[in-house]
Amino acid sequence: LQASDLIITPATTFKEKPDPTGLVFGTVFTDNMLTIEWSLASGWEKPCIRPLENLSIHPAASALHYAVELFEGMKAYRGVDGKIRLFRPALNMDRMARSALRTTLPTFDQKELLECIRKLVELEQEWVPYSTSASLYIRPTLIGTEPSLGVKKPTKALLYVILSPVGPYFPSGTFSPISLWADPKYVRAWKGGTGDCKVGGNYGSSIYAQQEALEFGCQQVLWLYGEDHQITEVGTMNLFLYWINENGENELATPPLDGIILPGVTRQSILDLARSWGEFKVSERYITMSDLTAALEKNRVKEMFGAGTACIVCPISKILYQGKHLDIPTMENGPEVTTRFLNKLTDIQ
């Protein structure tokens, strides 16, 4: 895979750019896309930037039958200086390569793919919103296109990248608190599975639980794991708890990367920022629902928030657990730390 081989045949008809204030997440796409085909026989073909169009794949393609696919999520931002920047894209390329290994899809040169993506964004630069509350979402995708039935390593694959200008991920807005539904009967991931990879199977199987959460009046699922109801992730986000821990210390805690947690880019960035501040303890540790409820009873919980590329940082105000509504005092506490992370990350981006 060589960026120097890139063939660019751009669109000649152009769609109207949307108003950045009215964007609904992931519904509008730019004029062009990047595609790179791979086969066991020939390796990677020359990368192409061409007009956005529907894919033509065999009906037996392994992505359709056996979920042999993966994706990434990253963003390009327009700074106040007018320059366009991608936020820590090397971390996305690294995670994408790990997901490819786990799903037996072809590996690729991360720097070369990133350069192809950069050229696509450069071509579509007018689609990067002139706004501080909107951005251009980048969705690299790798699918198995093996044209035969049978659960096996694919001999053909397609890597493509599409772009979508986006506003806030949640309809409630950029920084409105969300409520969570926590029920151990559904599990997002398990030890030895693919919870630490960004593969579609992790998301498709979560929709049923998400619908149930909505029926209970909650916006997202708080995923629990194990007999002790370990807190893992929030919907499609990593989770952070800012509290006074069992030893009386101010602590920012998030579940450890033990194979069931997605190693989020925003997650890593928040940990890096917090450790650089040196103002409170920063831990990657297990937190159970009994830990949380005990801390709430003793007023030791200060703030709780989700973090991810789509939403950046999202405060949490309520959790429905075992028939009880737990009030999380995130907004009552400012939310000082959550807002600070959001502002700092937004400034960097």
Structure description:
With 349 residues, the protein is an alpha+beta fold. It has 8 helices and 18 strands. Strands 1, 2, 3, 4, 5, 6, 7, 8 and 9 form a 9-stranded mixed beta sheet that branches. A 6-stranded mixed beta barrel has the order 10-11-12-13-16-17, surrounded by 4 helices. A hairpin with a 5-residue loop joins strand 13 and strand 14. Helix 2 crosses helix 3. The protein is globular. The mean pLDDT is 94.
Q: Work out the radius of gyration.
A: 21 Å
Using the alpha-carbon principal axes, give the shape. Answer: globular
Uncertain stretches: none
> What is the makeup of the main sheet?
9 strands, mixed
Structural class: alpha+beta
User: How many independent structural domains?
Assistant: 2
CATH topology term of the largest domain: D-amino Acid Aminotransferase, Chain A, domain 2
H/E element order: EEEEHEEEHHEEEHHEEEEHEHEEEH
Number of helices: 8
CATH class of the largest domain: Alpha Beta
Number of strands: 18
CATH superfamily of the largest domain: D-amino Acid Aminotransferase, subunit A, domain 2
Calculate the mean pLDDT score and round it: 94
Strand-residue proportion: 25-35%
In helices, the fraction of residues equals 10-25%
Short description:
Belongs to the class-IV pyridoxal-phosphate-dependent aminotransferase family. The chain has 8 helices and 18 strands. With 349 residues, it is α+β, with helices and mostly antiparallel strands.
